[in-house]
Amino acid sequence: MNWIYLIIAGLFETVWATTMKLSHGFTKISFTIYTIVGLFFSMFFLAIAIKKLPMSLAYPIWTGIGAVGSIIVGVILFGDKLSPLTWCFVALLLISIIGIKFTSGN
């Protein structure tokens, strides 16, 4: 269950990063509130997961999920353009996240 909490925390990291961009420097109050709520839930679920999971595994997986999620949202929602080489590195990041989970023994 702790891995589920960690995945949820990573997804909320993507939420708050996205809504922070949509807040336009915290000038749009609704998106600023969504950013704060997303950040709260991201930290909340990370705190639950890290009770049982080693920090050396949980933190990089949490940030990795947020990074990959933010890349995907950037491409889909904001029209960010990535080179094929960049996509290769995104794939390596995703493979690394999965590899850390499966080799951790937790």
UniProtKB/TrEMBL annotation:
Family stated for the protein in its record = Belongs to the drug/metabolite transporter (DMT) superfamily. Small multidrug resistance (SMR) (TC 2.A.7.1) family.
Give the classification, highest ranks: Bacteria, Bacillati, Bacillota, Bacilli, Lactobacillales
Single GO molecular function = transmembrane transporter activity
Predominant place of localization = membrane
- CC annotations in GO: plasma membrane
| PANTHER family named in the record | GUANIDINIUM EXPORTER, SMR FAMILY PROTON-DEPENDENT DRUG EFFLUX TRANSPORTER SUGE
- UniProt subcellular location: Cell membrane
- UniProt keyword annotations, A-Z: Cell membrane, Membrane, Transmembrane, Transmembrane helix, Transport
UniProt cross-references to Pfam families, sorted A to Z: Multi_Drug_Res
- Membrane-spanning residues where? 33-50, 57-78, 84-103
Query: InterPro entries from the entry?
Result: EmrE-like, Small_drug/metabolite_transptr, Small_multidrug_res
Q: What is this protein called?
A: Multidrug efflux SMR transporter
Membrane protein topology class: Multi-pass membrane protein
